């Protein structure tokens, strides 16, 4: 008798625990702000690289769409056309009144291209992490190498520093981004190629853009800046206030 009572009590406990977990998971997933943030990862990365940023933005009260896109398989123009309108429409369908962007590396160039060619009435703030806004000398040196082409695809060929490169061709920003870049590197060969202080892929100077609202250099590398705690704190502040 005692065994049956204990067994039944355990079953009831497990059932109630599962129901509570389902309730709180459902409540969390359906509680969101009408301020949405679209996250765009960098070249040859995936949306998992932005997962820490996503978590902290959710905790800060934003609704977040961590957008994936096949960065190695198409040029910048095609990536924008295929993926940004869909991401924006998804936010609109969920009731977005404001749409912010947080980007890493080439993700910032996608946003620049979109806003250069299309209007976005709901546009809020844009934070760019280590963007190659004036291109990168790394592309100039290595773009003709087979391995570079294979790793970075058509879009990687468009991120150089000459006048035909997409970042240069886009000109000044027609919005007011906040830009965070790093001054640390894990690739000293690439840093040797890049003039001046850099983050291992992009120089501090080439992360800047005419028309930016604010600019900050932190101790972070290009590869991991989106996971840097200071970068995350500054990002949240900019999204809320428009400055760092």
Observed structural traits:
alpha/beta; globular; 244 residues; Rossmann fold; 6-stranded parallel sheet; 14% strand
Protein architecture, described:
This protein is of the alpha/beta class. The chain has two domains: 31 residues; 209 residues, Alpha/Beta hydrolase fold, catalytic domain (Rossmann fold), CATH 3.40.50.1820. Strands 2-1-3-4-5-6 form a six-stranded parallel sheet, with helices on both faces. α3 packs across α4. It is globular. The N terminus is likely disordered.
How is the CATH topology of the largest domain named?
A: Rossmann fold
Radius of gyration: 21 Å
**What general form does the structure show?**
globular
Number of strands: 6
Please give the alpha-carbon distance between the first and last residues: 66 Å
Into which percent range does the helicity of residues fall?
40-55%
Can you identify the CATH superfamily of the largest domain? Alpha/Beta hydrolase fold, catalytic domain
Succession of helices and strands: HEHEHEHEHHHEHHEH
Low-pLDDT windows of residues: 1-31
Mean pLDDT equals 89
Helix-and-strand structural type: alpha/beta
